[in-house]
Fold:
Amino acid sequence: MRIILIGPPGAGKGTQCQRLVDYLRVPHLSTGEMLRAAVRAGTAEGLAAAHFMAQGQLVPDPMILGLVTKRLEAADCRDGCLLDGFPRTLPQAAMLDDLLDCRAMSVDGVIELAVPRDELVHRMLARKREDDNPEIFAKRIASFEVQTAPLLDYYKRQGKLASIDGLGTADEIFNRVREALRRLKRDS
Ligand code: AMP
Structure:
């Protein structure tokens, strides 16, 4: 299955993604992780991306598209993958559709982890990441609300969206994720 997990920063996507990839036995494609790895490795891509990431801004599409295309073309992604952090905007969703269309592939389902904004801020204060200071975090939430949230409607119209409550223990949330997968499989 080709699944996208969407949720605001701090929604717990990382934890659920780890469980999902074990469950689905597909590779985890996290653009945030790819970018952080490039920054750590000090590649030209990493250097170019670091500035945007530190400001809580989106990295320009060509760089993201390059990373995702390379990854989607790898043999281990032929039977499915879990996309995390991509697409993040409507233009990126259209790019993904084109990319998959050309390879006779498609998105099978989109799972939204819904978490209220107050809870996100509370969680952010409890964890540490270098792009997590309160001001930058607020920018990342705003970027989600303005640029990424419209994707939910985009996939809902295609009958591919399953929204789940992102509050609770990791186990409780993962049970909802599995239930959402069953619904998506049944409806596809
Ligand atoms: P994440 O770990 O998904 O929250 O991503 C961390 C940072 O990487 C984001 O705040 C963006 O600066 C950048 N990033 C990750 N994915 C994308 C994307 N699909 N488009 C643009 N920028 C991205």
User: Anything to note?
Assistant: The two ends are 11 Å apart (CA to CA). The chain has one domain: 2-187.
